[in-house]
Design goal:
five-stranded mixed sheet; alpha+beta; STM4215-like; 22% helix
Length: 141
Protein backbone atom coordinates (compact mmCIF):
# COMPACT_ATOMS: atom_id res chain seq x y z
CA UNK A 1 0.00 0.00 0.00
CA UNK A 2 1.47 3.37 -0.93
CA UNK A 3 1.69 6.06 1.74
CA UNK A 4 -0.52 9.15 1.71
CA UNK A 5 2.50 11.28 0.86
CA UNK A 6 3.32 9.01 -2.09
CA UNK A 7 -0.27 9.27 -3.31
CA UNK A 8 -0.12 13.08 -3.12
CA UNK A 9 3.24 12.95 -4.88
CA UNK A 10 1.68 10.96 -7.73
CA UNK A 11 -1.14 13.51 -8.03
CA UNK A 12 1.22 16.51 -8.07
CA UNK A 13 3.89 15.05 -10.35
CA UNK A 14 1.52 15.39 -13.30
CA UNK A 15 1.55 19.18 -13.02
CA UNK A 16 5.10 20.03 -11.96
CA UNK A 17 7.26 21.58 -14.66
CA UNK A 18 10.35 19.85 -15.93
CA UNK A 19 13.36 20.45 -13.71
CA UNK A 20 11.43 20.57 -10.43
CA UNK A 21 12.03 17.88 -7.80
CA UNK A 22 9.25 16.47 -5.63
CA UNK A 23 9.83 14.10 -2.71
CA UNK A 24 7.21 12.52 -0.41
CA UNK A 25 9.08 13.40 2.79
CA UNK A 26 10.95 16.29 4.37
CA UNK A 27 14.70 16.50 4.65
CA UNK A 28 17.51 19.01 4.71
CA UNK A 29 18.58 19.37 1.08
CA UNK A 30 22.24 18.52 0.49
CA UNK A 31 22.26 20.58 -2.67
CA UNK A 32 19.40 22.84 -3.63
CA UNK A 33 20.09 23.37 -7.31
CA UNK A 34 16.49 23.26 -8.59
CA UNK A 35 13.06 24.03 -7.16
CA UNK A 36 12.13 21.47 -4.52
CA UNK A 37 8.68 20.47 -3.27
CA UNK A 38 8.51 18.32 -0.12
CA UNK A 39 5.42 16.67 1.37
CA UNK A 40 4.81 16.07 5.07
CA UNK A 41 1.61 14.34 6.25
CA UNK A 42 0.83 15.71 9.72
CA UNK A 43 -2.60 14.28 10.64
CA UNK A 44 -4.81 11.40 9.56
CA UNK A 45 -8.51 10.96 10.40
CA UNK A 46 -11.51 9.12 8.99
CA UNK A 47 -12.85 10.91 5.94
CA UNK A 48 -16.39 11.92 5.04
CA UNK A 49 -17.19 8.51 3.54
CA UNK A 50 -16.27 4.91 4.26
CA UNK A 51 -12.96 3.97 2.65
CA UNK A 52 -11.66 7.56 2.55
CA UNK A 53 -9.02 9.10 4.81
CA UNK A 54 -8.73 12.81 5.55
CA UNK A 55 -5.13 13.90 5.92
CA UNK A 56 -3.69 17.19 7.02
CA UNK A 57 -0.57 17.82 4.98
CA UNK A 58 2.13 20.42 4.64
CA UNK A 59 3.85 21.06 1.37
CA UNK A 60 7.12 23.00 1.45
CA UNK A 61 8.32 24.86 -1.64
CA UNK A 62 12.01 25.76 -1.73
CA UNK A 63 13.94 27.42 -4.53
CA UNK A 64 17.71 27.35 -5.13
CA UNK A 65 19.66 29.83 -3.06
CA UNK A 66 21.22 32.78 -4.79
CA UNK A 67 24.04 35.05 -3.66
CA UNK A 68 21.58 37.87 -2.99
CA UNK A 69 19.15 37.42 -0.06
CA UNK A 70 16.59 39.77 -1.63
CA UNK A 71 16.71 37.76 -4.87
CA UNK A 72 16.20 34.53 -2.86
CA UNK A 73 13.00 35.98 -1.43
CA UNK A 74 11.84 37.06 -4.88
CA UNK A 75 12.43 33.66 -6.51
CA UNK A 76 10.46 31.88 -3.78
CA UNK A 77 7.64 34.42 -4.12
CA UNK A 78 7.56 33.86 -7.89
CA UNK A 79 7.05 30.11 -7.39
CA UNK A 80 4.10 30.44 -5.01
CA UNK A 81 1.22 31.28 -7.39
CA UNK A 82 2.36 28.46 -9.63
CA UNK A 83 2.35 25.89 -6.81
CA UNK A 84 -1.06 27.00 -5.49
CA UNK A 85 -2.39 26.64 -9.03
CA UNK A 86 -0.98 23.10 -9.19
CA UNK A 87 -2.52 22.16 -5.84
CA UNK A 88 -5.91 23.60 -6.84
CA UNK A 89 -5.98 21.26 -9.86
CA UNK A 90 -5.81 18.17 -7.65
CA UNK A 91 -9.42 17.23 -6.96
CA UNK A 92 -8.61 15.50 -3.66
CA UNK A 93 -7.00 18.66 -2.20
CA UNK A 94 -9.02 21.26 -0.27
CA UNK A 95 -8.39 24.11 2.14
CA UNK A 96 -5.11 25.38 0.72
CA UNK A 97 -3.38 28.01 2.85
CA UNK A 98 0.18 29.25 2.33
CA UNK A 99 2.45 31.16 4.67
CA UNK A 100 5.88 32.65 4.08
CA UNK A 101 8.80 31.48 6.14
CA UNK A 102 12.01 29.55 6.14
CA UNK A 103 12.46 25.81 6.08
CA UNK A 104 14.61 24.64 9.02
CA UNK A 105 15.60 28.29 9.54
CA UNK A 106 17.89 27.96 6.50
CA UNK A 107 15.96 28.15 3.25
CA UNK A 108 13.42 30.78 2.16
CA UNK A 109 10.24 28.80 1.55
CA UNK A 110 6.50 28.68 1.38
CA UNK A 111 4.75 26.43 3.88
CA UNK A 112 1.44 25.28 2.39
CA UNK A 113 -1.12 23.55 4.60
CA UNK A 114 -3.93 21.61 2.99
CA UNK A 115 -6.50 18.90 3.54
CA UNK A 116 -6.24 15.83 1.37
CA UNK A 117 -8.95 13.21 0.88
CA UNK A 118 -7.48 9.88 -0.15
CA UNK A 119 -9.29 6.62 -0.83
CA UNK A 120 -7.86 3.62 0.94
CA UNK A 121 -6.16 1.65 -1.79
CA UNK A 122 -4.44 -1.66 -1.38
CA UNK A 123 -1.67 -1.94 -3.95
CA UNK A 124 -0.78 -5.45 -2.85
CA UNK A 125 -2.02 -8.14 -5.23
CA UNK A 126 -4.52 -10.62 -3.88
CA UNK A 127 -2.82 -13.91 -2.98
CA UNK A 128 -3.62 -16.88 -5.18
CA UNK A 129 -6.15 -19.21 -3.60
CA UNK A 130 -4.69 -22.29 -1.99
CA UNK A 131 -4.93 -25.34 -4.26
CA UNK A 132 -7.37 -28.00 -3.17
CA UNK A 133 -5.20 -30.54 -1.30
CA UNK A 134 -7.42 -33.49 -2.30
CA UNK A 135 -8.93 -32.86 -5.71
CA UNK A 136 -11.59 -35.33 -6.68
CA UNK A 137 -10.36 -37.91 -9.11
CA UNK A 138 -12.58 -38.43 -12.13
CA UNK A 139 -14.25 -41.80 -11.98
CA UNK A 140 -13.15 -44.35 -14.54
CA UNK A 141 -15.84 -46.11 -16.59
Amino acid sequence: MSTLAEQLETMLTTYLPEGWTLIPYTTTPDVLDRPLVMIDIKTIAPGPAQGVLQAGARVYILKPSLDDAARNEQTVDEAMPFVVDILSRVQAVQGIEASRGTFLDLFPAWDVTLTLFVPLVDDEPEPDPEPDPDPEEPEEA
